[in-house]
Amino acid sequence: MQLTDFNFELPDELIARYPLETRSASRLLHLNTDGTYKDLHFTDILDLFQEGDLMVLNDTKVMKARLKGKRASGGAIEVLVERIFDQTTAHCHIKASNSPKAGAELFIGSDEVKVTVTGRHENLYIVEFSQPILQVLDAYGQLPIPPYFNREAEAVDTERYQTVFNDPTKLASVAAPTASLHFDEDLLKKLEQKGVKKTFVTLHVGAGTFLPVRTDNIENHIMHSEWCEVTEEAAQLIAETKARGNKVIAVGTTATRATESAAQACGGKIGAWTGDTQIFIYPGYEFCVVDRLITNFHLPESTLLMLVSALSSRDNILNAYQHAVESKYRFFSYGDAMLIEKAN
C-alpha cells in the first residue's frame, strides 16, 4: 500500500488546539462494522457498552519533557527527553542550529544544570545530566504538547494533557494517550455502575508518534520503539472477557499496540508481557485482542490512521473522516472521538 492511500484534506480550523471545558463533552462518531456511521456524544458510550465488556486503558503519565537552554557559546537549544535509563542518563532529541557532537556541553536553567552529549543512538542523542533528570524536568521542564498546536504549553495543559487515572509512578511519556482524555471521574463511575470493567496496561509514548512516514510504500516503514507492559492481571481479565463473549475495548492506539504486542509475543493469544515494541499495524493485520477501539481523529498519512484502517478498512475510515470534516468535528489530541467496530 502507498502512503498517498492514507491522505485526506483537513482544514486548519478543525485542529483542536485547546480542550473543551468538560472532558466528556466531545462528539463521538460511531463507525459500525459495515462502514455505516452515526453522530453521537461521547457519553453515549454508556448505551453502547454492555455489562461485562472490558475497557483497556493506558495508565502512563506525561513528563514535562521539553527543556530550553543554551550551548556554552550561547546559542539556543531545546532538549526533549525521550527515554530515561537511570537517574542521570537519557536518550533525547536536541534542536540546535548545528547538531551537537559527542562531548558538547549544554546548559539548562541559568546554567544550573549541565547536559553533556556522550553519543548517538539511532536518531537520538545519549546525554548525561549533572542532576537527577526527573528533578530537572520538574524544575525547568514544559509539557511537550503536540507540534500541531502551534503554541507553547499553558496552564490549562498541566491538567488536561494528562488522563484522570494516570499513575504517578509511570511518569515516562512524551505524549498523552489522547483517547483517554475524554474520560472524567463521573463517566468512569457510571460505566463501573453499569458493570463495564476496566484494566490498565502501560505504554510510554515516544515522540516518534508525531514523526511522518517517509517511505512511499508503507510496508518499508520502520516504527519507533516504545516500552510497554501488560500485566498478568490485565492479560487474565482480557482472556476472561473474550472467553465469555464480551467485547474488549481498547481506549486509544497505545492500548491497542500494547495488547496486540503482548499477544504477538505470546503466540497469538493474550499473555503477560513486558518489553520494547515496534509493532506496525496497517491494513491486512489480523487483530488478536481488540474488538472495538475508542480513538481520536488522526493526521493524514500517519501510522495511527493506518492502524484504525486495519481495524475497519481504509475506505470505511476515509469515508467517515470525510463526513467528520464536513460535519466540522474537532481533530487530533484535544479533538472529538470515534468508536470503531472491528470489521467482520
TrEMBL record:
Gene3D superfamilies in the cross-refs: QueA-like
Location in or out of the cell: Cytoplasm
Reactions listed under catalytic activity: 7-aminomethyl-7-carbaguanosine(34) in tRNA + S-adenosyl-L-methionine = epoxyqueuosine(34) in tRNA + adenine + L-methionine + 2 H(+)
Superkingdom of this protein's organism: Bacteria
EC numbers, comma separated: 2.4.99.17
Role summary: Transfers and isomerizes the ribose moiety from AdoMet to the 7-aminomethyl group of 7-deazaguanine (preQ1-tRNA) to give epoxyqueuosine (oQ-tRNA).
Family to which the UniProt record says this protein belongs: Belongs to the QueA family.
HAMAP family (UniProt xref): QueA
Name of the protein this chain belongs to: S-adenosylmethionine:tRNA ribosyltransferase-isomerase
Organism: Acinetobacter wuhouensis
